[in-house]
Amino acid sequence: MQIKSFSARTLDANALKSFAHPLRLRIYELLDEHGPSTATGLAALLGQNTGATSYHLRELAKHGMIEVVAGMGRGKEKYWRVVPGGFSYGEARPADPEVAGALDYLLDDLVRTRGAELSRWRAESETAPEEWVQASVYGRRSLRLTPEETASMRDQVFEVLERYRALSDTRENDSTGHVIVHFDVLPTGVGGGG
């Protein structure tokens, strides 16, 4: 099983354990969706105190998930953003039970987040501008493939996504929309439990 974006850096065991925290995940989601923010701004959105958000921002930064935006803010005020390029959870199940538990938590959150994002768009699409409705799609395909063909298809799709991720990373909050792409390859019935 691979949980990655095509050329993203892979989180090490310490980063996985650190990221598997509900408030850190939510902070990361907010920075990803809304762009740069301060600890104070995030604290207001999350109903937390600034000390808590500052601590969790530093933890995310320590593991290269976010960074301070140069040139934004006054005095000691820091604006934080998601580090461009994305990240991967890795390719194999960790042998360390603590790291494996952190990965399980992150994967469960990924599934939850995807469901919430799909439901949100389903509701928003009723009133969204027509050009965005026309550009969006819900997609599902059921294919009969070998493991080699499956891996090849996955890699080709990630190559396309990587081109658009690189384009996206060059942009700030301009006239673009925040577009989420879900892509999963799920062989079913191959593990003996299906």
From TrEMBL:
Protein name (Swiss-Prot/TrEMBL): Transcriptional regulator, ArsR family
Pfam families associated with the record: HTH_20 (PF12840)
Domain HTH arsR-type: 14-108
Taxonomic source organism: Nonomuraea gerenzanensis
SUPFAM superfamilies reported in the protein's UniProt record: Winged helix' DNA-binding domain
InterPro entries, sorted: ArsR-like_HTH (IPR011991), HTH_ArsR_DNA-bd_dom (IPR001845), WH-like_DNA-bd_sf (IPR036388), WH_DNA-bd_sf (IPR036390)
Xref: Gene3D superfamilies: Winged helix-like DNA-binding domain superfamily/Winged helix DNA-binding domain
GO molecular function annotation: DNA-binding transcription factor activity
